[in-house]
Structures are given as C-alpha cells and as structure tokens.
Amino acid sequence: MSDTPTKPSVLVVDDETGILDSLNILLRNEGFTPDLAHGGRAGLERISASTPDIVLTDIRMPNVSGVEILAAARQSDPDVPVILMTAQATLQSAMQAVNEGAFYYIQKPFRNDELVAILRRAAEHRNLRVENKSLKQAIRRHEQRGVARPVGTSKSWLDILRLVETVAPTDSTVLIQGESGTGKEIIARYIHELSARTEGPFLSINCGALPESLLESELFGHVKGSFTGAIKDKIGLFGAATKGTFFLDEIGETTPATQVKLLRALQHREVIPVGSTDAVPVDTRVVAATNRDLDEEIRTGNFRSDLYYRLNVISLHLPPLRQRQDDIPLLAEHFLQRAATQRNEPVKRLTDSAREALLGYAWPGNVRELENALERSVILTPGDTIGVDSLPERVTERRIEPLVSAHTPTNPTLEAVERAYILWVLQSENGNKSRAAEALGIDPSTLYRKLSRYGVEA
Hints:
Elements: E1 9-14, H1 17-29, E2 33-38, H2 40-49, E3 54-58, H3 66-76, E4 82-86, H4 91-99, E5 104-107, H5 112-145, H6 155-167, E6 174-177, H7 184-194, E7 202-206, H8 212-220, E8 221-222, E9 234-235, H9 237-240, E10 245-249, H10 256-268, E11 270-271, E12 280-281, E13 285-290, H11 294-299, H12 305-311, E14 314-317, H13 328-343, E15 349-350, H14 352-360, H15 366-380, E16 385-386, H16 393-396, H17 414-428, H18 433-440, H19 444-453
Parallel strand pairs: 1-2, 1-3, 3-4, 4-5, 6-13, 6-14, 7-10, 10-13, 15-16
Antiparallel strand pairs: 8-9, 11-12
C-alpha cells in the first residue's frame, strides 16, 4: 500500500480554449489532476466514460449547458461535487444551481485563490462522503457477519476503527502500540474477525510471560529429544495458526535471539523448530503489540530495527482512556450490561455523581481498570443503582493540584489544568463565585456545576 495521497481529478468543462488552458496550469500547480473538455458534449462524454472527483463547468455553453452537465454528473455519482461558473450571475440562476444540487456557484472573473479554496473544500467534501458511505457499508457487513464493533465514538477511537476496517481484509502485518489496558488484544481480534482468515484460528501469546527457551518452543515448535522434557514433536503456534491470525502480545519483551528467529519467520514465512535444521513453511497473519516505545528500545539496542520495520507495515497507536473521555460513559454502560448478562440479573445503573466521578478520574490502567472497577461495583452494590460509595476510593478521591508547584505533574490532563485554574481564580476573588465566574468568562451556573463536579463545597 502506498501512503502517497492521490491528486483529486477535476473535469473542467468550458467552450473557451483560453479558460481551459489557464485552469489547466492553475490546477496542476495546486495539486489537482485536470481533465479538459471543450464544450458540453465533450463533458458528457467524459462523464459517461469515468466520473471524476470534482466537476468544474461553465453554465452557458452552446448545445449542452452546465446544468445538463450537473445532472449527468449527479446521475453518474451522487457524491461528486459540481462547481458551476458563469459570467452572468443572477439570483435566479444561483438558486436554480443550488436546487439542482450544485456544490458551489462562482462568478467569472474569479480570483485564483478563491477557486482553489472552493476546489479543496469540494475534494474534502467528496472524501468525507465516500468515507461515510464506505463506513456504513462496513458496518452493514459486520452486522451481517455478527461482528461487534469495539465500543467508542470519540474521534481518536473512530480513526483507529476506520483504519482497522481498511487494512483487515489484507494480509499485511500490523503493529499495535499503546499503554497497558487500552484494548490491543480487542483490536487484534477485530482485525481477525474482519479478515479473510476469520474461519481460521486466532491464537495469541504473551511474549513477556515465558522464559526465552520455552517461548521459542511455543512459537516455533520443537522436535523430540531437543531438550529435557521434549518427549515428542510439537508444532509451534506459528504452525497451529495456519490460515488464521497469530497475535504476539508484548513483543517488546523478546530477547535479541528470539527477535532474529521472528524476523526470519516474517521474511521467509517459515520457521525452524527447536532442535531441527529443517524449515517448516507457515501461513499465518501476524499482529503484534507492545506497550513499550520501540523507537527508544531500538536506540538503546534492546530491539532490532529490521524486525521493527518488518512488523510496522501497518501501525496503530491506541489512545489512552484519558484522551477519549467521551467514551467513558459508553464503556461503563457496556461493562454493566455485560456484567448483568453474565450474572443473569437486571442491569445496574450509575448515579449522576458516580458517572461524574468516572469522568473525573485519569484511569492510568485505561479500559481494563475501568472494567475492573465496574465489576467490583456490581458485586458490592446490593441494589440496582451504583453510587459513588460503591466505586473504588482511588476513583472518587479528589486531588486538587496547585497550578504551579515545585514538582510539575507529568502530562496533566486538560481537566486537571482547568480545575486548578478555576480554583486559583476563585481564591484570587476571595471565594466570590460571581466575580470568579465573570473573570473566567462563564455563567455562574456553569461555575457551580464545575465546583460540584470537583467536590468543592459552595
């Protein structure tokens, strides 16, 4: 796959050769791929042969008008943006263009920078329409196959899911990076479920949980008598995952010797079992994950750069939960629903104050910590409502950090900075909330809600 963005194609339709020539030069210089059609009939022929990304057409032309070009383009592809040009603009013609579905209506003569800005907006508009349509189709395919989308609607999470849904049907190796508990295995399983290998096995191993000798046997297999306890031949997980997906979790924990063998497996699609000299071909897709900074590990000599480049064909960086705060209520509801299903009991609901507490916590353990906290709360809550008292103390404890201190906190959250600043302004106004709200530029009611959220008594 190439990472080089394609240049948007623009069909330019006009009956004046001079305008076509000048627009040809302008569009090429601005990163577009122009296709010139002299007159309306030539424009219709181009559209019937291949729909461009954008259509830029004059309205008044002999035989075939720009409005007819607009109709033909929209019929060929409803998502193609059409920009109409005219030297005789009237309110009536502008309204007609909009009613016919034109993306924009521009009057000649126009400034080059004005036209380029409109074209770039049109290209972005088309990309969004195409992406949304592709996403809806992917969701329908997932629903038909019974594949559940990982929970979350924040932009950073949706960006990850869109990339996953694009690369999953390929056989490319994927490297998933992110803090512990961010959902790396969930994403790996999602890739498998959306791939052509979904009928095959999904196998996984934690590379940091086994000593080197045992790890190599698990990965590549061994032959009888190769070491004490090897009483028979054993196929490794690479071989067992044939026609499926093999998830290598915490690959950053592997030793240099194991890394060499992993590199061979990825390069040549074959493994050599421990104690053997014969290579065994394997057919499995590899998805690897780590919570380490592999760039730093390479600099310190702990990880091979050639293995990194072999793994890093498709790279996914999962955001920590503190950076996708909008997803916390959705995830909480998901975990409570799942807990109710597992325990065969009604779903327990969070009180507003409990929900605010979840939103106000930094979640250093990410989604896994949130799941564990809610599972604990479900067990400890006798009723059908989970309040603040049922949440772990670390979640409900409010730590008001000073705005400036001798020890600057590492990577403070936006909420921590906001909370510290509001309290500093409030202190500067001697506790007068009306004046503090005025200084902050917010309504007093908003200030009261924020103070209540921060656990500050009125």
